[in-house]
Each structure stands twice: as C-alpha cells, then as structure tokens.
Design a protein that fits this description.
single chain; alpha+beta; Arc Repressor Mutant, subunit A; 2 domains; 5-stranded mixed beta sheet; 4-stranded mixed beta sheet; 8 helices; elongated
C-alpha cells in the first residue's frame, strides 16, 4: 500500500507541496526495499521441499500494534521469519544500543533502527499465538555489495545467497514434522489485515489531468478519447489511471464534479458517459461513483457497454 501510494504521489502531487521532497526520499527507500525483497524471493524459489510463503505479511496484535513481516516461510517442522534490508556499505549491528550503523564508502556513519528488534517483536508475537510451533527469525542483507561487520551472536544475519543453506541447517535442528502447511497458511491468512493508508490527500493537493502512458505528458480529451499532442498517442481509457490515483490518495468514490476537476474535462455530460460503467452510490443529495480496486488493470475492450460507445 505505501509503495503504491508513493508511486502515485510522485506522479500526482505538486512538487511545491511542503512534504514533496520527503515523499521522494520515501519512494526511493521503498523502491530499494522492494528490489531487496525480489532478490530474496529469487533465492527462495530454489526451495524444493513442501512450503508456503507469505510476503509482506501484515497483522495487528491485541494491543493494536502493527506487525509487517517481509517474509514468513511455512515449513512442516517450523516457521521462519525474514527481515530484509537492502543497503550498501559496512553494516554493524549494535545490539546493546539497539541500532544499525552503516559506514558509507565516503566514511560517513549513519544510524538506522535495529532490524533485530523488529524481527524479535514479530517472532515473539507469532510465538504467543502459536506457542507449540518452533518460530525462528533472520535478518537478510539483500545487497551483494554490503559488508556485514559486527553482529548479534543470537540472531542470524547473512546475505541473501545463504538463504537456502540457512533453511537446510534450520530443518536439521527442527526435523520433526508438526505442521500441516496448508492449514497453518490459512490460519495466518485469516490473521492478515489490510494496511491502513499511510498518506491521505484532498483533490486540491493533486495535479489535474490525464497523463500519457507513453511520454507522461498531459493528454487532451478530444471527440471521446484522450490524445497526447506530444507523442500523438491516443487512448480511450487513459482516465482509468486517474481514477486509480484518486482511489489510492483521496477516496474510493468520486462525484461527477470531482472527476471533471481530476481529469480536466469541462463537460459533465461527457463524464457521465465515461463513468457510466461504475456502480452508483447515493448519499443524501449527492451521487457518487464507486471506483473498483482493480480499476488500473481492468480489461480495456470496446463493447456495446464500453464507456465510449
């Protein structure tokens, strides 16, 4: 959710917004995080033994504290939680001070929150729910150029290419099958909660217009279709992306007037035709159109029910 929102923020929020530079930094960090998770997932695909994997598992404990675990690996004899970090430089894990120190190539030292503490919180929580299940954790460094310096003697910390060996070693220590993998997977899925939107905006915060998927220029609505005057790309359904952006940052429902402002269309009658395929919600004197979650991936086919016909 956070990454998807940040992606839209970079596209839609005005660069003069007071927090825009912060959003750019967060987007860069989130992009690096996903790249690191992809690196880890690449090595997890080597697992030939029965297993299930939950990626970006999000849940809430009894005290309403949120737990976001990068990977939960369910095996027949144990559960493994992985906390992934995609960082360069020399990484020193200071357990007593609860910090991660990174020494960059220019010798500048930076402090980060200790991922070991994050991991401990997650494994402790899962152990409280499933006290008879062996649950272990590890911190995985996804960047191959990083150097792992001082570390905790109690928490495994290693590069992503060691994952398979780590799992093999863990299975030797926990060899007795105690889990029905599919049943436990369903139990965890039942605990999963949808992440709350980290950021919220109003329509006034967003840049108006429908943007070209080819060159990102603002498109013009001409004779029932969106036309890019820069690269000449034409797309009847380019406004789907605008609805997707609005849903992620503002609300899951939109009025005719809001849609006109969002897409830069002056005719409310044209918007009625564009939005006629969306479910209508009546709230008092107001009429809203419900934006489906899958709006950006909906099949764009011309049919008798298409918004342009």
């Amino acid at each position: 959710m956070k990454y998807k929102q940040l992606e839209v923020i970079i596209r839609r929020v005005d660069p003069y917004h007071p927090d825009y530079n912060y959003f750019v930094e967060q987007y860069a960090l989130a992009t690096a995080g996903i790249a690191g998770e992809n690196e880890v997932f690449y090595f997890l695909q080597e697992l030939a033994i029965p297993h299930r994997i939950l990626r970006n598992f999000c849940t809430v404990d009894a005290a309403s504290h949120k737990h976001e675990i990068d990977f939960v690996i369910i095996l027949s004899s144990l559960i493994i939680c992985l906390e992934v970090k995609n960082m360069t430089g020399q990484l020193d894990f200071d357990v007593e001070a609860s910090q991660l120190l990174r020494t960059r190539s220019d010798s500048i030292i930076e402090r980060f929150p200790n991922p070991i503490e994050q991991l401990t919180r997650h494994t402790r929580f899962l152990s409280s729910l499933f006290p008879h299940v062996p649950i272990i954790g590890a911190v995985v460094i996804a960047n191959r150029r990083a150097i792992i310096g001082s570390r905790s003697p109690h928490t495994p910390i290693f590069h992503s290419d060691y994952i398979y060996s780590f799992i093999e070693k863990s299975l030797k220590q926990h060899a007795e099958p105690t889990l029905d993998i599919d049943v436990f997977y369903e139990q965890l899925i039942a605990l999963q909660s949808l992440p709350i939107k980290p950021f919220s905006f109003t329509l006034a915060h967003l840049k108006s217009g429908v943007f070209c998927s080819k060159c990102t220029s603002k498109m013009h609505f001409i004779q029932g279709k969106f036309v890019c005057l820069n690269c000449h790309h034409q797309d009847k359904f380019a406004y789907f992306q605008a609805l997707h952006d609005f849903r992620l940052l503002v609300d899951s429902k939109i009025t005719n007037k809001e849609f006109c402002t969002l897409c830069g269309i002056s005719s409310r009658y044209a918007t009625i035709r564009l939005l006629k395929f969306l479910p209508i919600i009546k709230q008092g004197r107001h009429t809203y159109y419900e934006i489906p979650e899958q709006i950006s991936t909906m099949v764009q086919e011309e049919s008798p029910d298409s918004p342009m016909n």
